[in-house]
Structure to design on (677 residues):
């Protein structure tokens, strides 16, 4: 019998165990980014910007030039880096508390300026690193450590849909929402990430990929149950799809 | 149907079980062994892998490698 | 002497930065420094640089973080409330050891305060301003020409120490016009950004990591000691000050920036009356020139600190002279300025005349 290896660790991924909890889909998103970097052969000119949150240690897992940014500020850091190094491929990797709460101004204005960067937005409807507090994307009724009875829209408003909001702007080139909860979604997520990076490389403008992700630990669910919960509860609130695409 | 085999980096596995759920042929399971981090790594416990890669695509920890198996005759043909 | 230009202080600061090789500016409008970004928005695109108006000071300073990480010469400017907003980012820049130049054209506070000149950000500038044990190198010009020279020096020092350098001016400096000359100077032997900045992975063979997070307490402690060693080097090599008529003085006026100019006029007039008074003017506020103040001539009996604040630099003066000599303080605040006559009166009062 002849064996052909058809799946292995991407080369731009560093060979270590991640600090993420079992079943956390950050690892899937990381691997997809590394695969795309390998396939587009851009490792030596890629710059990652990861702000505060579980994924602040992105640089421990993807071997590219990296910035660790302040909470919410990655789009500002990435904007400047890209403007000074126009031949580089600059991406930020941000969670929902980071991007949709404290960093709302930076993401909206980077998108509105049409910065030629790629933003990867991990939406798991909760603050992960700090221990499961309510996020701007927490679903109505979803329990979190700072809304123990579930999110009450009378007190805390409704989940923010970032793709839909950013798609109202004229400048962004590519805006899409995908998921990595199950293989069928993950395959499409990789296509979206490839397109997002290509959008940047071809100079077409700002690209934004929202990835619906699980946080089994803070959701209080087993990993497989968390993927089902995401499908049943998050997807109706945050529909997958392409909201803007380069002409 | 293609034949395959799943390779497991047992030290990397966190026992989350996403690959077990993703496998359409149900050839994976959580083993009884314990790795140095205290997790029970996944294993391929029977024949029947079709090299579809669903397990590796869904694994958050790059634990799995997938091989396609071809008999030499088919290869030479 | 080279060609001289009559320029407004803010524009001269901006032009000095361009002469120093700065092609990248990120900022947000605030009075009284708006001529700096306005000048940059016109000039930088002409020389292939980048001017970007950020959505806030918070974003602007993080753009500086991103830009400085490439190892190129970058700057921002703001005024007091804007610097407060930037302080978080400045802490990150200092923590990640990135070179950049920050200009603070100070206005009165606290809060929204006013838009007129002030020196009430001395504590904020010299003690770091944001969280954590870090320092900025702080340069305090007292003429527009000196503002030009120190701005050009600031870029060299920022690169030499991989540390943010602040040019601490005030609204007078920004708004007044004086003749200036741009003297081309650049330090030699500065570190090569290819050794540490992003954008050189192929050339260097390894990636760059711009970070300030050290979860391991031993690592964070070591990082802090490394920063402190750097600040000690600054204190040893970069301390700058000016003394004027100190040697036979009975009383010294300690003042920096615009106030030092006013004090100089008062000193000249008092000398005409036979009063033995001199000036001690710190040019670097961090590192503060403690040593020369510790070793004053025996004739100096006391020190009068004059500031456009309620008394900030006076604390460093007291730290330097200890209990050996009395230190008094005269301040005007809120955009009010100590006049020549007021300073003369204070000197006479201190001397009991």
């Amino acid at each position: 019998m002849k064996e052909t290896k058809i799946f292995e660790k991407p080369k731009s991924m560093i060979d270590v165990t991640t600090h993420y909890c079992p079943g956390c889909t950050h690892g899937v998103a990381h691997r997809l980014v590394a695969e795309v970097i390998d396939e587009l052969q851009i490792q030596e000119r890629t710059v990652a910007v990861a702000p505060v949150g579980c994924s602040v240690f992105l640089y421990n897992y993807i071997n590219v030039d990296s910035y660790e940014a302040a909470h919410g500020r990655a789009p500002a850091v990435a904007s400047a880096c890209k403007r000074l190094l126009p031949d580089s491929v600059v991406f930020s990797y941000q969670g929902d508390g980071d991007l949709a709460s404290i960093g709302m101004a930076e993401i909206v204005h980077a998108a509105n300026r049409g910065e030629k960067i790629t933003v990867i937005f991990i939406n798991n409807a909760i603050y992960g690193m700090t221990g499961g507090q309510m996020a701007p994307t927490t679903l109505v009724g979803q329990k979190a450590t700072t809304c123990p009875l579930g999110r009450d829209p009378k007190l805390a408003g409704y989940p923010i849909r970032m793709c839909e909001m950013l798609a109202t702007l004229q400048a962004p080139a590519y805006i899409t929402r995908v998921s990595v909860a199950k293989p069928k979604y993950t395959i499409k997520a990789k296509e979206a990430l490839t397109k997002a990076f290509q959008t940047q490389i071809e100079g077409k403008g700002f690209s934004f990929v929202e990835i619906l992700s699980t946080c089994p630990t803070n959701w209080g669910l087993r990993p497989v149950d968390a993927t089902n919960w995401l499908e049943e509860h998050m997807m109706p609130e945050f529909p997958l799809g392409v909201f803007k695409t380069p002409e | 149907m293609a034949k395959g085999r799943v390779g497991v980096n047992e030290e990397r596995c966190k026992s989350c079980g996403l690959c077990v759920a993703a496998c359409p042929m149900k050839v994976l399971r959580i083993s009884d062994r314990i790795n140095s981090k205290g997790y029970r790594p996944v294993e391929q416990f029977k024949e029947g892998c079709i090299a579809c890669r669903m397990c590796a695509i869904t694994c958050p920890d790059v634990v799995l490698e997938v091989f396609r198996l071809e008999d030499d005759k088919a290869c030479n043909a | 002497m080279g060609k001289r230009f009559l320029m407004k202080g803010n524009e001269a600061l901006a032009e000095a930065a361009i002469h120093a090789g700065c092609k990248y500016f990120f900022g947000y409008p605030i009075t009284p420094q708006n001529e700096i970004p306005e000048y940059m928005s016109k000039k930088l695109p002409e020389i292939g640089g980048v001017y970007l108006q950020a959505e806030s000071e918070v974003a602007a300073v993080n753009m500086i973080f991103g830009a400085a990480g490439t190892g190129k010469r970058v700057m921002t400017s703001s005024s007091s409330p804007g610097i407060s907003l930037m302080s978080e980012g400045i802490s990150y820049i200092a923590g990640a050891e990135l070179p950049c130049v920050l200009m603070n054209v100070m206005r009165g506070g606290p809060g929204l305060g006013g838009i007129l000149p002030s020196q009430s950000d001395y504590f904020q500038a010299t003690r770091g301003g944001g969280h954590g044990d870090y320092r900025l190198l702080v340069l305090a010009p007292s003429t527009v020409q000196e503002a030009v020279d120190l701005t050009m020096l600031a870029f060299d020092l920022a690169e030499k120490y991989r540390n943010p350098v602040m040019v601490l001016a005030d609204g007078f400096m920004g708004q007044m016009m004086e003749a200036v000359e741009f003297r081309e100077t650049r330090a030699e032997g500065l570190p090569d950004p290819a050794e540490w900045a992003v954008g050189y992975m192929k050339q260097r063979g390894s990636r760059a990591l711009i970070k300030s997070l050290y979860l391991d307490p031993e690592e964070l402690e070591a990082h802090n000691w490394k920063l402190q060693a750097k600040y000690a080097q600054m204190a040893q090599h970069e301390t700058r000050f000016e003394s004027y008529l100190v040697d036979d003085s009975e009383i010294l006026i300690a003042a920096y920036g615009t106030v030092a100019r006013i004090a100089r006029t008062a000193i000249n007039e008092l000398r005409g009356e036979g009063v033995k008074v001199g000036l001690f003017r710190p040019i670097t506020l961090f590192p503060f020139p403690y040593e020369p103040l510790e070793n004053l001539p025996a004739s100096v009996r006391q020190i009068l600190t004059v500031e456009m604040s309620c008394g900030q630099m006076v604390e460093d003066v007291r730290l330097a002279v200890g209990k050996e000599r009395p230190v008094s303080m005269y301040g005007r605040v809120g955009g009010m300025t100590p006049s020549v006559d007021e300073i003369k009166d204070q000197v006479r009062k201190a001397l009991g005349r």
